[in-house]
Amino acid sequence: MASNATSAPTSRFDPTFTQHVLETMGPKTTERNRVVLSALIRHIHDFARDVELTVDEWMAGVKYINEVGRVYSESKQTRNETHRLCDILGLETLVDEIAHKIISETDVDPTSSAILGPFWSPNAPFRENGGTIIQNPAPNGRVVLMHGVISDLVTGKPIPGAVFDIWQASANGKYDFQDPDNQTPNNLRGKFRADENGKYWFYCYYPTAYSLPTDGPSYVLLQMMDRHPMRPAHIHIMVTNPEYKGCTTQLYPKDDPWLSSDTVFAVKDDLVVDFTPLEGDPKAKLELNYNVILAPKDYKGKTF
């Protein structure tokens, strides 16, 4: 005698729903889009089921995303809260590691990368080695002579002509375009070209810790997680040469109190540096010697 019995359900949720959503993608979907969007949909659906997301919580998320877009639009696209959200959730640091992490086949690795952040500008001027990026002196700014050598990971030889791009906040914790009353465009920004020995040198400021903005959606999320908005003091650098994998990173003073809880999770051990007293230079009281190691463009490193 035939039985009409069916197996007992293991969940109150439709087990075929997510797969049905995925199967609605059409044949013109590119292979990469299919991979990325399928994984995104699966994770979003699993997340909603896992926490049993309520309608009120879902709508709160919808309103939150709308608010993020409103801030960007009303700031005339200068305040990128979406980018900042990616930072405080650790996503940008994770994507940066996926894109750039190389483990060498020797005991020397290339300089670690770190997130670009929202304050880089393509318009920083080239300056002469030995020059300064300080256009508008800050009352509490401590001048640093920063110098080092840019070299090849494989050969150890210097890389003449490599471009060393630097940008940093002023002593008040603000970048030039955040602070037009006190800073002219490209204050504390500059590009320097390494000499024939791969050396660069210039004057900058000892970096200053600062808070992410506390008047927008990203700060609301930080408060929900009972987290602070502080970034440790840091200097941004981007080092490039056409024959090498570029390195975008950040350098942090070793005694900064926010190193272990950086709100964007960008600190790495080899990026923590020591600023030392400098004597005999009338322009600076401190010194930072930092060498940069770049991997050749075709270098793969260890595979896992």
Describe the structure in brief.
The chain has 304 residues and is α/β, with parallel strands linked by helices.
List the main descriptive attributes of the protein structure presented here:
304 residues; alpha/beta; 5-stranded mixed beta sheet; 6 helices; globular
Task: Describe the 3D structure.
Helices cover 24% and strands 18% of the residues. The chain is built from six helices and twelve strands. The strands form three sheets. Strands 1, 4, 10, 11 and 12 form a five-stranded mixed beta sheet that branches. It has a five-stranded mixed beta sheet with strand order 3-2-7-8-9, with no helix packed on it. Strand 7 (235-240) and strand 8 form a beta hairpin. Helix 1 packs antiparallel against helix 2 and helix 4 packs parallel to helix 6 (217-224). The longest helix has 21 residues, at 31-51.
Global morphology: globular
Low-confidence stretches: none
Q: What's the order of the H and E elements?
A: HHHHHEEEEEHEEEEEEE
The helix/strand class is alpha/beta
User: End-to-end span in angstroms?
Assistant: 56 Å
Mean pLDDT reading = 95
Task: Count helical runs.
Answer: 6
For the largest beta-sheet, the strand count, sense and barrel status come to: 5 strands, mixed
- CA radius of gyration is 24 Å
Strand content: 15-25%
The level of helicity is 10-25%
Counted beta strands: 12
Detail the topology: elements first, then pairings.
Layout: H1 17-23, H2 31-51, H3 55-74, H4 81-88, H5 91-100, E1 143-152, E2 163-167, E3 189-193, E4 199-205, E5 210-211, H6 217-224, E6 230-231, E7 235-240, E8 247-253, E9 272-273, E10 276-277, E11 286-289, E12 292-294
Parallel strand pairs: 1-11, 1-12, 8-9
Antiparallel strand pairs: 1-4, 2-3, 2-7, 5-6, 7-8, 10-11
